[in-house]
Structures are given as structure tokens and as C-alpha cells.
Amino acid sequence: MGKTKSKSNLPTKICPVCNRPFNWRKKWANCWNEVKYCSERCRRNRSFEKVGGMEAKSRR
Ligand SMILES: [Zn+2]
């Protein structure tokens, strides 16, 4: 057995805001477990998703 090709074997997650997969990044090395959004922008947009605010009252 040789080397395992771990070059393109980065973990990925799917951003719940834009529904796109995104790759592990070095800056997330310490907090990858907590990363949920692909970018700062999506992280802010998450409030649109489910904020449990005024809108989500009689919507469903
Ligand atoms: Zn996103």
C-alpha cells in the first residue's frame, strides 16, 4: 500500500442557507465541527431560514 490520496479528500458540508456543498478550509481547522455555513454572508442570512420571529407564526 502506498500513500493514501488525501489531497482531494477534504471534508465537505452543505450550507443550509444556499444549499451548496462547501469544502473544509484551513481557517476552520479549529472549529470545523461548528461550521455550518459556507461563508460569513450565509451565516448572516441564516436569520432568513428560521428565526422563529414574526413571520413563522401562522405560516404553517
Ligand atoms: Zn452558503
Helices and strands in order:
Blueprint: E1 12-14, E2 21-23, H1 40-49
Antiparallel strand pairs: 1-2
Zinc ion is lined by residues 15, 17-18, 20, 37-39, 42.
Rg calc = 16 Å
Backbone structural class: alpha+beta
Query: What is the N-to-C succession of helices and strands?
Result: EEH
Binned, the helix content reads 10-25%
Unreliable stretches (pLDDT < 50, length at least 5) are none
Overall pLDDT confidence: 81
- Distinct ligand kinds: zinc ion
Task: Summarize the main sheet.
Answer: 2 strands, antiparallel
Brief summary of the model shown:
With 60 residues, the chain is α+β, with helices and mostly antiparallel strands.
Feature tags:
60 residues; alpha+beta; 17% helix; elongated; binds zinc ion
Overview of the molecule:
- With 60 residues, this protein is α+β, with helices and mostly antiparallel strands.
- The chain has a domain at 12-45.
- The chain is built from one helix and two strands.
- The protein has one helix at 40-49, and strands at 12-14, 21-23.
- The chain has a two-stranded antiparallel sheet.
- It is elongated and about 50 Å long.
- The termini are far apart.
- The mean pLDDT is 81.
- It binds zinc ion (ZN).
- Zinc ion binds next to loops.
